[in-house]
Amino acid sequence: MRVQQAKNPQNLTGFEQEHLPWILTPDFIKKGEEFKVVVKVGEVDHPMCPSHYVKWISFYVNGKLIEKTKLTPSSGLSEAEFKISLDKDSKLKAQEECNLHGLWESSKEIILYRG
Ligand SMILES: [Fe+2]
Fold first, then answer.
1. Distance between alpha carbon 12 and the CA centroid of its chain, in Å?
2. Is 74 helix (H, G, I), strand (E, B) or coil?
3. Which backbone phi and psi does 19 adopt, to 5 degrees?
4. How far separated are the first and last CA of the chain, in Å rounded?
5. CA–CA gap between residue 103 and residue 110 (Å, rounded)
6. Statement: the pTM of the whole predicted model exceeds 0.85
7. How many angstroms separate the CA atoms of 43 and 17, rounded?
8. Cα(98) to centroid(ligand 1), Å
């Protein structure tokens, strides 16, 4: 299945806003300190009804799968939470599959706070 990404991240289409995973992290992340990542699909809430819903959200750190959360229409929210800690600047990646509109992916670079 083809993985869909933002064609122009500065100017997302409505369809992209609804489907691209949106990776939310704290503003300041320190080395070795556990923090929560919320992955929402998408920036505009994706439907979660029996005919149209997000099947799963998976989360990667530096290319390594951390966790895959399965969702059903009864999950209610098209989002998942993950807890991680980082020991270096890292690339976070999330994928999701919509039952109608396929696979979507986005990523986010994390620069550790050195203050
Ligand atoms: Fe969809």
1. 16
2. helix
3. -115, -25
4. 42
5. 23
6. yes
7. 5
8. 5
How far is the centre of ligand 1, averaged over its atoms, from the C-alpha of 42 (Å)? 10
20 C-alpha to center of ligand 1: Å? 10
Helices then strands, counting H and E runs in the chain, come out as: 1, 8
Assign 1 a pLDDT band (cuts: 50, 70, 90).
confident
Domains and CATH numbers, the chain: 3-110 (2.60.40.730)
44 CA distance to ligand 1 centroid (A)? 11
At 70, which amino acid appears? Answer: K
What distance in angstroms lies between residue 54's CA and the mean position of ligand 1's atoms? 7
79 CA distance to ligand 1 middle (Å): 14
Token reading at 84: 């991680």
64: CB partners within 8 A, 6+ apart: none
Per-residue pLDDT tens digits for 23-80: 999 999 999 999 999 999 999 999 999 999 999 999 999 999 999 999 999 999 999 9
